[in-house]
UniProtKB/TrEMBL annotation, chain B:
PROSITE patterns: ABC_TRANSPORTER_1, ABC_TRANSPORTER_2. It comes from Streptomyces roseus. It is an enzyme of class 7 (translocase). InterPro entries: AAA+_ATPase, ABC_SmlMolc_Importer, ABC_transporter-like_ATP-bd, ABC_transporter-like_CS, Mo/tungstate-bd_C_term_dom, P-loop_NTPase, Transp-assoc_OB_typ2. Its EC number is 7.6.2.9. The keyword ATP-binding applies. This is ABC-type quaternary amine transporter.
Length: 324, 369
């Protein structure tokens, strides 16, 4: 330090490195030469043949049973092709009632499961993120509980209560939920069954958007909590809400075990019921129900498409994304 | 203590004020907020004058974002209060605070176009469609995006999204503008450009602005005053030049800019002897010991090429107009010196150099054992 001596104070440099480093540092990156391109590894040829084979195999796995079912319904030995099985459907006893019941149960299940899951997941996401694993485990539990066990539990609960409780609201409620015209007990059971799928779909949607920031941004713009949920969160969770509804619909339309064991007759149970007497018609109904389900799923998936991601807005070229 | 603003006051926020209306005075009084055992704010007191842009600067966890979120209404302090124009808003819900906010992450609503994003707050307040459209166009023009009204967030760059977010925050003509590290996700060039743009807008609108950043360059270049926070407390709030030239505490001295610590000794005359030089002391002098560490800015260290010099250049970093030299001195001390780049040509790594100090007051702290 002996060499250090006081010197007159010079003018402070125009910009210190601390405040200028962000803008005055020279560009130092050396341009890559053409040799880099020459040394690039050769791409391996794509296994097109294998991909086609796997695709065909998977397609056959799904389509062969469907085609076989369809052929069975329209081919009558000795008479050739006949669409009688399909034309008789609408007049078949119980077809319309069971189909409408299943659609009603599906709509109610979708509504109930979303009403339960959306506020719960939003609350967990915003207020108690640490509870997320607990909620996840609870929502996933129905996957490991066999439907037969669920039915046994439901049946036991519905039989609770001695005769002297028959005039109480509890007993009357138990009776009401078992009304054959619209068995609410099935909605409750299906909601439990659908919970894992609803949870997964909504959770994925909420991970895709920054929920806390969107909520805070809306709040700072003056939005009340109901406004935030209805006008900000739900529109941005549209795809995952549609996905949840999509899976719940498929589950309810195809569910047989619980409905059958509880003695109700939605569509899946009706198909099995008539299969003994009208084998061709029951297969025709199955094919038709598959088509109806696909159609409904298509409608739901279209409903879940975010308008912001389709080409309604002007497209942006790569150059227009650069700063001016 | 009031809990909500009257509805009439809310509507005044948009309809009653003009763009050039002066901002509000914001006061933090004894704010304290703890998260479990972590104290984020520990009795923060700060007053921000109307129309002023104050940057809250500090290391991670110092409480700067918590302080901003308390003003926004997203955090409730454990004690203390926030006043806007003398009115206690500590318990007022976030949606009734009349404060616009721009977030670090792009916070635009993905399902809305830029125009609808800007008009969101107006729609919440029930402003008519024609007026909303007109105001959104006006603000998009103000932030330099007049032709981007129909674009959705995913069709815009980060800088454009933050401009739209700024327009959205200004749409309701808030009394206070809160900026939570709005530039940190952008690349350097866009950051510099948007920084200037925000400052220009803030000055033209005269809106009181609280700007949280961990970037000293942003804080020093944009703010009227910079408030340096450390462990939830205010270390110093001063104009950028004063903060840099006359730091009130060793923490500020070392946090803002770069500082050398050189061993020194307090003399009987009250000067500090450092490296054979005697310099006046700025600020408090430790009474318990005469052995001190002297805080010297790199630009106050001189270095000249000298084959007989006792210092060795270890490294040289080029920053355009300035070159920073890292020098080793006898006794194991290292020192940084900032020289005009045109004078640093001969001081390549390995060269010998003579090192000196400019004659100006210095800060001293007791030397740690």
């Amino acid at each position: 330090m002996a060499a250090m001596t006081p010197t007159p104070a010079p003018a402070t440099p125009d910009a210190t490195p601390d405040t200028a480093s962000g803008t005055t540092a020279p560009a130092a990156a050396a341009p890559a030469g053409p040799s880099v391109k020459a040394r690039a590894p050769r791409r391996r040829p794509r296994p097109r043949v294998w991909r086609a084979a796997v695709f065909l195999l998977a397609g056959a796995y799904f389509l062969v049973p469907l085609v076989a079912s369809f052929v069975f319904t329209v081919h009558v030995p000795g008479q050739g092709v006949s669409f009688e099985a399909y034309t008789q459907l609408l007049a078949a006893d119980g077809f319309t009632e069971s189909m409408l019941l299943s659609l009603g149960l599906a709509a109610a299940t979708i509504a109930l499961s979303l009403l339960l899951a959306v506020p719960a997941l939003v609350a967990v996401r915003l207020g108690s993120p640490r509870l997320r694993p607990v909620v996840e485990v609870m929502c996933m539990l129905p996957l490991v509980v066999p439907p037969i066990a669920l039915v046994t539990g439901i049946t036991t609960v519905l039989r609770w209560g001695p005769e002297h409780l028959s005039r109480t609201p509890l007993y009357q409620t138990f009776l009401a939920v078992q009304d054959e015209r619209f068995p609410v007990v099935l909605v409750l059971a299906y909601t439990v069954l659908a919970l894992p799928f609803v949870y997964r779909s909504l959770d994925a949607g909420m991970r895709a958007v920054d929920v806390p920031t969107l909520v805070e941004a809306a709040r700072s713009c003056g939005a009340s909590w109901p406004y935030v949920v209805l006008r900000v969160l739900l529109p941005n969770l549209r795809a995952s809400l549609a996905g949840a509804a999509f899976l719940t619909l498929a589950l309810v339309l195809g569910e047989f075990t619980i409905a059958s064991l509880l003695g109700f007759r939605p569509f899946a149970v009706w198909i099995v019921t008539i299969s003994g007497a009208h084998a061709r018609m029951s297969v025709a109904v199955s094919v038709l129900s598959l088509l109806i389900t696909w159609l409904l799923l298509l409608v739901l998936s279209r409903a879940g498409t975010n308008p912001a991601t389709v080409s309604s807005a002007p497209s942006t070229s790569p150059t227009s994304r650069k700063e001016s | 203590m009031s809990t909500t603003l009257p509805a009439a006051r809310q509507s005044e926020g948009f309809d009653g004020r003009t763009d050039s209306a002066p901002g509000a005075r914001v006061e933090f009084r004894g704010l304290r907020r703890a998260f479990g055992s972590t104290v984020a704010l520990d009795g923060l007191d700060l007053t921000i004058e109307p129309g002023e842009l104050v940057a809250l600067l500090g290391p991670s966890g110092c409480g700067k974002t918590t302080a901003l979120r308390v003003v926004a209404g997203f955090e409730q302090p454990d004690s203390g209060e926030v006043l806007v124009d003398g009115e206690d808003i500590t318990r007022v819900p976030a949606n009734r605070r009349d404060a616009g906010m721009v977030f670090q992450s792009y916070s635009l609503f993905p399902n809305l176009s830029a125009r609808d994003n800007v008009a969101f707050g107006l729609r919440v307040r029930g402003v008519g469609a024609a007026r909303r459209r007109e105001r959104a166009a006006e603000l998009l023009d103000l932030v330099g995006l007049p032709d981007h009204g129909d674009r959705y967030p995913h069709q815009m760059s980060g800088g454009q999204q933050q401009r739209v977010a700024l327009a959205r925050a200004l749409a309701l003509r808030p009394r206070v503008l809160l900026l939570d590290e709005p530039l940190s996700a952008l690349d350097a060039k866009v950051r510099a450009s948007l920084r200037d743009e925000i400052r220009r807008l803030q000055l033209s609108l005269g809106i009181t602005t609280v700007f949280v950043t961990h970037d000293q360059e942003e804080a020093l270049s944009m703010a009227d005053r910079v408030a340096v926070l450390n462990a939830g407390r205010l270390e110093q709030c001063a104009a950028p030049a004063e903060l840099y030239e006359r730091p009130a505490t060793p923490f500020v001295a070392e946090f803002v800019g770069t500082m050398n610590r050189l061993p020194g000794r307090i003399t009987d005359s009250g000067l500090v002897e450092v490296a054979g030089a005697r310099l006046p002391v700025d600020g408090p002098v430790p009474t318990a010991t005469r052995e001190v560490e002297v805080l010297v800015r790199p630009e106050n260290v001189t270095a000249t090429a000298d084959p007989e010099g006792t210092a060795t250049v270890v490294a040289a970093s080029f920053f355009g107009a300035v070159t920073r030299l890292h020098l080793d001195l006898p006794g194991g001390t290292s020192v940084k010196a900032d020289l005009p780049s045109r004078d640093a040509g001969e001081l390549a790594p390995g060269a010998r150099a003579a090192v000196g100090l400019t004659e100006r007051p210095v800060l001293v702290v007791a030397r740690s054992a």
